[in-house]
Structures are given as C-alpha cells and as structure tokens.
Amino acid sequence: MSRQAFEAAAKAAVEVLGLSRSKDLAGLLARGRSRERVLVELAAPGVSGVVDPLYDAMEAHTVPPTEAAAYIRGYVAAVRQTREAVRVRTVWSGPSTPGVPARATAQALIEVIDGARDELLAMTYAARPYPALTHALTRAVERGVRTHVVVETLAGARGLLSGREPAHAFASVPGVRLWHWARDPARHRNSRQHAKLAVADRRVLFLGSANLTESAAHRNIEAGVMVNGGEAPRRAAEHIVELQRTGVLRPLAG
C-alpha cells in the first residue's frame, strides 16, 4: 500500500469526523491509543468506516501513530486556513463586457442558497415569484436548512411598492420563515427595509443592489460582491439574528 493510500485515508477521516473531532483523533493517535480504543472514544455513526481504513493504511505503510497524528493535525490546520481565507468577487446583472469576467447575479445567488447546509438568511426590498429562486429555497428547506427571509411590506414602503406583498413571492416555499421590520411609524415614517443580501452558514455573503426578483437577477444592471470566508459573512448573520432577537425584526403573520 502506498503512502498516498495513507494520506487518502487521513483525508477521508477528516471529512467524516469534521475538524474538531479530527483533532480528538490526532490526540488519541499521539497517545498511542489502539484502534479499538479510538472507535470507543469517537463512537458515532460512520466512524468505523474511516478509522479502520486509516489504521489499515498506517499498519501497511508502517506509519507511526505519532506521525499519523502530526499529519492529521497539519491537514486540519490547512483546511481551517482555507476556510478562513477571504475571497471577494464582483457580481453583476445586465450587459457583459468582453475580456472582463464577472459573476452573474442569478448564478451567485443560487450558488449561495445551494451551498447552505445549516442556516440561510436573506433580506430584500422587493420580491416577485421567480422559479429559479423558489426552487433553490425549496431545496434548501428540504435538506434541513433553517431559512429566513426578511422582506419589506406594502405598508412599510408607503406607496413605493405596488402589486402583491413581497412576501407572496415565497408562498410556494413551505418552511421558509418570513420576517419584516416592525418599525414605529412615528419614529421611522419615511424609512425602508432596503437591504439586499443572502448569507449562508455565516461563511458566504452575497451583498448588492439586486432585489430577489427575476428582473434584478437577469435584466437590470445591478452590482454586488460575493464574500467567501472572513468576518463579513459571520458579522452580517449575527446582526440579522440580533435584530430578530431584540424584536426589531418580527415574524410576518400569514
């Protein structure tokens, strides 16, 4: 068995166990714990499926437990650094220009939604039924993502929005939780809920001028940024959650 087989087994273990439990695995290896002891210590569904191949590879290639522990710790550190690295890309709707690559708004928005695994928070001013968007949100809810969308209301827009309530755009998505800004009319008479963003799992943030409408995603000239990693996605999500907790944002009845 090649050294590559050991590295593949270690990678598979980290992918299944996650970063925190992989550090636990490295600690057990560093202390020379047996295969049986590790399986007991890390008891969970799927653990034996990665621990057994790892120990088989260590034995076949004569990899000492201390060396295996060091390799796993290094791999965990590399994965964490990659996840925390900040990448910012521009996002545009409307006409494209030759020689200047830019992410399309529709593509970026669906990418954020489809990438969510635990939490998805979105905010929009206007909203209209848009099949690509509602299908992506439905898939997110079906895979167990806690999905919250903050919308403006016709009353809050005070005549600047017309037609059906923006919340109607999400009526076909069972399980999505809708919120609105419960502002005091006396203090915030001319204010609007004008934020447009989506943030997935506090690690990917799409922020721009585009509402959650098909025209904004495809036809208008809209500009925004996609931020992967760093503090911006986490801070944006924390701010929305705190606005919910304090009652500034409230569930939208009906």
From TrEMBL:
<keyword id="KW-0442">Lipid degradation</keyword>
<comment type="similarity">
    <text>Belongs to the phospholipase D family.</text>
</comment>
<dbReference type="InterPro" id="IPR001736">
    <property type="entry name" value="PLipase_D/transphosphatidylase"/>
</dbReference>
<dbReference type="InterPro" id="IPR047955">
    <property type="entry name" value="DrmC-like"/>
</dbReference>
<keyword id="KW-0443">Lipid metabolism</keyword>
<dbReference type="Pfam" id="PF13091">
    <property type="entry name" value="PLDc_2"/>
</dbReference>
<dbReference type="InterPro" id="IPR025202">
    <property type="entry name" value="PLD-like_dom"/>
</dbReference>
<protein>
    <recommendedName>
        <fullName>phospholipase D</fullName>
        <ecNumber>3.1.4.4</ecNumber>
    </recommendedName>
</protein>
<dbReference type="GO" id="GO:0016891">
    <property type="term" value="F:RNA endonuclease activity producing 5'-phosphomonoesters, hydrolytic mechanism"/>
</dbReference>
<dbReference type="InterPro" id="IPR051406">
    <property type="entry name" value="PLD_domain"/>
</dbReference>
<dbReference type="GO" id="GO:0004630">
    <property type="term" value="F:phospholipase D activity"/>
</dbReference>
<keyword id="KW-0378">Hydrolase</keyword>
<feature type="domain" description="PLD phosphodiesterase">
    <location>
        <begin position="189"/>
        <end position="216"/>
    </location>
</feature>
<dbReference type="GO" id="GO:0006793">
    <property type="term" value="P:phosphorus metabolic process"/>
</dbReference>
<dbReference type="GO" id="GO:0016042">
    <property type="term" value="P:lipid catabolic process"/>
</dbReference>
